[in-house]
Specification:
The protein is mainly β. The protein has one domain. It has three helices and 15 strands. The protein has helices at residues 45-53, 87-98, 209-214; strands at 6-7, 22-25, 32-38, 65-71, 109-112, 115-117, 138-143, 146-151, 158-166, 169-172, 182-185, 188-197, 201-205, 218-225, 233-238. The strands form four sheets. A five-stranded antiparallel sheet has the order 1-13-8-7-2, with no helix packed on it.
């Protein structure tokens, strides 16, 4: 997957840009990160994609919960190549399985706050968030093409994940299990990079941030320890013009 993020330095943001600063800030309580592993080549996936899209209208969106759709590539050789899929997404799901957070690798597959969630298949509600569980505040400051991220939680070696999400994607499927269907997607991870830090702070540049703003993309950031993919805290929201 093409990466638009460049590690800049640790320190202060350079000033002098005309672009107004945008800030995303979580609460001290853990935000629920909902990960959907999906594919346009899987006939069982469209209902899960539609379920995720409905979260656009949730009052909890960006505050209590953040959805992400990771399109996997292991369906690509079975009749239809998913244009949003990547090997990195497939490996992320596989690593959840290897860390015993997933019983197996399948689509559609949900991971909620780092744990397998099969409630979708039986129409159950999402697990209640741990609203009393204080983990620390995750803050993202965006100014011009630079991104400053700080986590106030426990000092440790962390992986900072930065993802750009796309919405209102439509694709006419011409072959494979979904042949003849018009599929629509939201919250699709079109870019994703990971930066390691032992200072709980990183500074990145995003060379094409202006283009992302015009295309009404959203930015999501989350952190996990080096020992586990389970997210500790997450934050995000739509990029403003």
């Amino acid at each position: 997957m093409r990466t638009l993020f460049i590690l800049f330095s640790y320190g202060l943001l350079s000033m002098g840009y005309a672009t107004e600063k945008q800030v995303f800030e979580s609460s001290q309580q853990a935000t629920t990160l909902i990960e959907l592993y999906t594919s346009e080549g899987c006939s069982s996936c469209p209902p899960a994609d539609q379920w995720l899209s409905r979260l656009k209208h949730s009052k909890k969106l960006w505050h209590d919960l953040i959805p992400i759709a990771f399109h996997v590539d292991y369906w690509d050789d079975l009749g239809w190549k998913d244009p949003y899929a990547s090997r990195e997404n497939s490996n992320r799901q596989l690593n959840y399985h290897l860390q015993n957070h997933l019983s197996s690798v399948y689509t559609p597959g949900f991971v909620v706050s780092g744990n397998e969630w099969r409630g979708f298949f039986s129409g159950k509600n999402l697990p209640d968030p741990h609203t009393t569980h204080h983990v620390g505040k995750l803050t993202v400051e965006i100014e011009a093409d630079q991104l400053k991220i700080n986590f106030s939680g426990k000092k440790q070696t962390l992986d900072f994940h930065i993802a750009l999400l796309a919405f209102d994607l439509t694709n006419a499927i011409k072959s494979g299990e979904n042949s003849g269907r018009l599929l629509k997607h939201d919250f699709v991870a079109i870019e994703h990079t990971t930066v390691e830090s032992n200072t709980n702070e990183v500074l990145l540049t995003m060379p094409q941030l202006e283009e992302m703003r015009k295309n009404k993309r959203a930015l999501v950031v989350w952190v996990n320890s080096k020992l586990s993919l389970k997210p500790i805290q997450a934050v995000g929201g739509p990029l403003s013009l």
